[in-house]
Write a structure and sequence with these properties.
Number of helices: 15
Strand content: 5-15%
Oligomer: single chain
Strand order of the largest sheet: 12-11-10-9-13
Helix content: 40-55%
Distance between the termini: 15 Å
Length: 405
């Protein structure tokens, strides 16, 4: 096997360059470091021209910049906290190697807005370049909090891109079984404020001691003492910024709330639709990311990342229970690719093949109904040649099962 694209570690360090033949020793060395890699395969050389390989260098730059922002804000927060608060929370920690360092709050404020604008411009101009849900993202390392915030902001920007272009955010509100179409004005200022809020939402996680974060399951005591208060800490950190808007503050304060009152820290049920969009973006990224804890979702084995299709199923189940906004979830589902490039699909007619096109550049239905290049049929026993099945036009076929990597 020959590498199709560069292999980067979670912190952006180049491990192997594209074009390198993979040996068994190299594969073993990558185990536990990266989840999967793109390889060249005979008959699939054209796929890279269709696939959207994310700009990992730009994404890692955003992650490192946000790490510096979080560490600076948390240090200032601890300095201003009263004595009792300082005894309860974790002490400040220095940003890791590669993180951007800051001198004052004004510089941090400008850097955060720069991050939001970078995401907005990237999604507006290139649409898919930073979005990377093709593979479950392993985030067990010390960068999880920052990666989660950046990836959630990128997803929210992708979902709201058309709203930005049209000047208003359209969604469906279900009231007593009656579906009403709603819209809210949506301009560049609101877009930036929303992204800034999402980028800041997990700052309070720095107040949780590392030894508590490392355990497989939060104890009830640790949830009450550390987990549930962290949105309030995030909000206090965000308030240190000179240009924080009410919208950004609302996102930070409410990103763990639920419409059925089962969220935290306040159990609020009525949120602005932009806040609901942020809640869905952060929840989706949490579902598709490996992490040590999944509070309320079962045993320690639940640290395994969901695949995009499974994550959407879980969110729609939550929407049916009234926990998240179903109408806005429908908007998110339009932009999430449930069967990414390289996914092996077994179709209802027995055809088995790889997804070779799942973007909406040609047909919007392609996101949910990809182009599959097949190499065998498990019913007829056919194993000769390659043939393509375009599920966007073959409505008589369904996906029977999927193998993601």
């Amino acid at each position: 096997m020959c590498l199709a694209v560069d292999v980067l570690r979670n912190d952006g360090v180049l491990l192997l360059k594209a074009g390198v033949p993979l040996s068994e020793q190299q594969i073993q060395s990558l185990d536990g470091v990266v989840h999967a890699v793109y390889v060249r395969r005979e008959g699939f050389d054209d796929v890279l021209s269709r696939a959207v390989v994310p700009d990992e260098t730009a994404r890692f730059d955003l992650v490192r910049r946000l790490e510096g922002i979080y560490c600076f804000l948390y240090e200032k927060y601890v300095e201003r906290a009263d004595r009792g608060e300082r005894e309860r929370i974790a002490p400040p920690r220095g940003a890791g190697g590669g993180a951007v360092e800051f001198r004052d709050l004004m510089q941090v404020d400008q850097a955060l807005r720069h991050c939001a604008r970078s995401i907005l411009e990237d999604v507006r101009d290139r649409r898919y370049a930073l979005l990377s849900f093709d593979l479950p993202a392993p985030k067990h390392n010390s960068l999880y909090v920052f990666e989660h915030a950046v990836q959630s902001a990128i997803l929210a920007a992708r979902v709201l891109e058309n709203s930005y272009r049209e000047g208003s955010f359209h969604y469906v509100e279900d009231r007593g079984g009656h579906r009403e179409h709603r819209e809210h004005p949506f301009d560049e200022k609101r877009f930036e404020d929303l992204l800034m809020g999402i980028l800041l939402c997990e700052g309070g996680m720095l107040s949780i001691p590392r030894e508590v974060l490392a355990v497989p399951i939060f104890s009830p005591e640790d949830r009450a003492k550390y987990l549930y208060p962290h949105p309030r800490v995030s909000r206090e950190m965000a308030r240190l910024l000179p240009s924080l808007s009410p919208l950004a503050g609302a996102v930070v304060a409410n990103h763990h709330e639920r419409r059925d009152g089962q969220g935290y820290p306040r159990g609020s049920t009525d949120h602005h639709p932009f806040v609901d969009a942020a809640i869905l973006a952060t929840t989706f990224d949490a579902l598709v990311s490996s992490r040590p804890q999944r509070p309320g979702m079962g045993t320690a084995k639940d640290d395994k990342a969901c695949h995009p299709a499974e994550a959407l199923e879980r969110l729609f189940a939550l929407a049916a229970e009234g926990a998240v906004h179903g109408g806005i979830l429908e908007e998110l589902a339009r932009y999430v690719v449930p069967y990414p490039f390289g996914t092996t699909l077994v179709l209802s007619n027995g055809d088995v093949g790889l997804v070779v096109d799942c973007t909406d550049r040609v047909d919007p239905a392609r996101r949910q109904r990809p182009l599959v290049r097949c190499s065998q049929n498990i019913r007829t026993g056919r194993r000769e040649g390659l043939w393509e099945v375009d599920l966007a036009s073959r409505t008589d076929l369904t996906v029977q099962s999927a193998i993601y990597a």
